[in-house]
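On clarity, I found the account of how folds are encoded harder to follow than it need be. For illustration, here is how one protein appears when written out as sequence plus C-alpha cells.
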Amino acid sequence: MTITVTGLSAGAVVAADVMTLGVPTTWAGNLLSYNTSSGETDATGWSALTNCTVDRVTSDSWEGWYSLRLTSVAAGNTRANSTLSVPVTVGTVYTGMTYVKPTVTTDVILEIRWYDASDAFLSGSAVTWSAVPAGAWTRLTAIGTAPATATAARLAVRPQASGAGQTWLFDYNGLTLAPLIAGNLLSYGTQSFEVDAAGWSAVSGCTIARTTASQVQGAASMAITTTGGAATVKTVAAVPVTPRLAYKATAYLYHGATATNVDVDVLFTWYDALGVEITTGTYRWTTSPAAGWYTPMGADVAPDTAVSLRVAFRILSPGTGTYYLDEAAVTRGGLGIIADVIPGAYGAAISLQGLTTGGHTHYGVWRVRDDGALTAIRGETGDMTAVPITGDVAVATDYEAPLGVPLQYSVRVYTGSDYLRAASRSVVIPEPPVTDVVVKDPVQPVRSSTLTVDTVPDWTRAARQGVHQISGRTTPIVITDVRTSRTGTMTVVTETRDDITRLWWLLESGNTLLIQWPSTWGEQDVYVQVGDVQETHILRWAKYQDRTWTLPLVEVDRPIGGLVGSATRTWADVEAESSDWLDVLTTHSAWLGVYSGEAG
C-alpha cells in the first residue's frame, strides 16, 4: 500500500492512521462490485433515476468509511439503480440485500430488476418494507426468480418520500444467488423467512411472525409464539411429489431451557390430483431440555395416488414462550419403507429406500403387531436384525405375516445405539376362501399351498407328570413339569392329480410348516411338524382322483434359518440367470432347484 500526498509546502506534516490492506467485507457470492456495494471509492456504481439524487457521505456507514445517500427531490416514489447490470440465469432464484437508515420513518421498496440481452427492462421482483424506522440501520431483502429471456439484473432502492429533502443512507448492498438448500422443494422465502412468514400458516396452538431476534441463516427466522396446546405450523403451498418415493422434511428449531425433553412431530400430509387429502404420516423427534437450535427431521413415502405434499411441525406440550424455526426444507430422499401384497403368494414385499441416510452401517426390518411387539422378518441369512448396508435400496419379503389383518413394517438403520427409523403404511394380505387354510414352508416359500379342510384339529396338550402312590397315604405324590405343546390331527381333501403332487411336494421336505387359518375360525397361526401322512381314496374307483389326507400335527417353535428362493420366482428369473438349457441342467439336479433358485 502506498500513500502519496502532493502540493505540500516545506515542513508540512501529514498524519495517517488505521491503515489496512485486505479483502473487503462484502456478501458471499456478491455479483455487485465492491464499490457498488459500498461506495468506498465513489458513487458511480449507482444512478439516480426517479425523483432523487445520489452521493456519498462519511457521517455514518454500516460497513467501511462511506455510505451512499439518496435525497428526494419531491414527494413520491424515488428510485436509484445499480449502474451496471450483472449476468443472471433464467429460472434461478436471486436475493437482493441492502441496509437502509432513513431520516424519517418511511416505506422503502427493494427491487431486483430484470433485463434481456438488449438491456430492455422485462419485470421487477419488488418487496415493500413498511415503516422502516428512522435513525437506525435496517436490513432489507428482495427475492426473485429470473424470468424467461432475462440475461441481466440490477438492484434498485425505492424509498417513498413524503416531501423534498428527505434522505436515506444505504450501504452494504448485495445481489447474490439465493442460498437455497440443495434439492429443496420449498421456495427460498418459505425456507428462510428473509422477507416474511407468508409461506407458513399457524394451524393450532400458536401465532407466527417473521423475526430478527434469532436466526440460523440470513437475518431472520419465524417466531412461533405458543397460545395453548400443541403448537403446529404448516406450509401454505403444496410441493409436487412422485408416488412411492421417500421425501424428507428438515428444519432448525430453537427452544429455550425446559424442564423436560421437547417432542416435535414432523407431519407429511399427502394430496391427490384433485387436492383431496389422502393421509398424513408422522415422524416424532425428541430434543433435550437444554436451550439451543435443534434439527428435527423426518421422512415419509408418497402414497400411490399422491401428487403433492404439505409438511408441518408440531411441538407437543410446548408450554408458554416463543420458539424459532429457520432453514426449513423438503427434499427427495430419506429413509422410507413400502409394504405391498405379493399377489397369489399370501405374503408381503417390503421395499426399502434411503438406507444410506445418515451414513449408518446396518439395518433391520420388523413386522409390527397391534400392541407394538416386533417380529424380525426372515431374510436370506436368517432374521433381518443386523444386515450390513451395501446400497441405498433393498427388498425384503415376509411369507409368515398373518392374513386378513392390518400389518405395518418398521425399518431401522443404525450404528451402535445411533439410529434412524421409518414405518410403512398398513397393508392387509387377503385370506383364501373360508373353506381353506394356507400351509407354507417358512424357509422355502416356493413350497406353499392352500388346502381345503375336511376336519380341523382337536388340540391336545399332554400333561408331563408322574403320579406316585405312597404306602400308607391316601393321596399320591405328583411330580409335574410344563405341559407339552399342542398336538392334533387335521384332515384335508384334494381333487386333482396336480393337487396330490403339490401336497406331496409340500410335505416331502420334512421341514417345519406354518398353517394360517381363516380369521373367522378362531384359530391362531401355528408352526407344526407333520407326522406320518395317510393319503386315502374317497372312492374305490381308480379313475376317481379325490383324496382325503390325514395330517398328524405337533406344534413347534418358529424355525431358524434363512429364506431359500422366492414364492414369486418365474421363468423370467430362470432365463435371466442361465445362458441356455445346459446351464439349467448342470446347475440344478432337480426341479425343486429350478423352482427355488437353489443350486445343486
